[in-house]
Specification:
4-stranded antiparallel sheet
Length: 171
């Protein structure tokens, strides 16, 4: 199974599926959950998924369970985990030994990057009147793509210059 999502808060719904022609499936066992994400059993992201997920009958020997995956903040790239379907008529010892389960199926999730807004830093300067103050603007961008600054509000007294040239608001 392959699923797509977006970085920064895009919850990805994953439906685990299996079928069993001679029995029923009671649950799915999750294996190798990704370290860069949280997996939930509820769409609201309130119930963390454990390793054993109850299966729901769909009819005709098919069973499913839906999970919701939230990638960590600012994570983008590939996530994956696997799962197995568990027969309902097997003992807990057989389940623990893996003999009552299907072959593993893999879930692959591609989390696409999104552009994050940069964060401007607070700057303060003071000095004597009738002198020029050097002010260094500072900001950060988790995407590493900071391209410049826009002056949104001019000082109430005085003016701004960049390389000796006057600067106005929104420049």
């Amino acid at each position: 199974m392959v699923a797509l999502g977006l970085e920064d808060g895009s919850r990805v719904a994953i439906t685990l599926q299996a079928s069993d022609i001679d029995s029923s499936i009671s649950a799915f066992v999750l294996q190798g959950l990704p370290a860069q994400a949280s997996v939930y059993t509820s769409p609201t992201g309130t119930d963390l998924a454990g390793s054993l997920i109850s299966a729901s009958a769909l009819g005709n020997g098919s069973y499913a369970a839906t999970l919701y995956v939230d990638a960590d903040q600012d994570f983008n790239g590939a996530l994956s985990f696997s799962y197995r379907a568990i027969d309902s008529d097997q003992s807990s010892e057989a389940i623990a030994a893996g003999s009552a389960s299907s072959a593993p199926a893999t879930v692959a999730i591609a989390i696409a990057p999104v552009a994050d807004a940069p964060s401007a830093s607070f700057v303060s300067a003071s000095g004597d009147e009738d002198t020029t103050l050097l002010v260094t603007l500072s900001a950060s961008d988790v995407d590493g793509e900071l391209r410049g600054f826009v002056i949104t509000e001019m000082p109430t007294l005085g003016g701004l210059r960049i390389a000796g040239q006057p600067v106005g608001a929104n420049e």
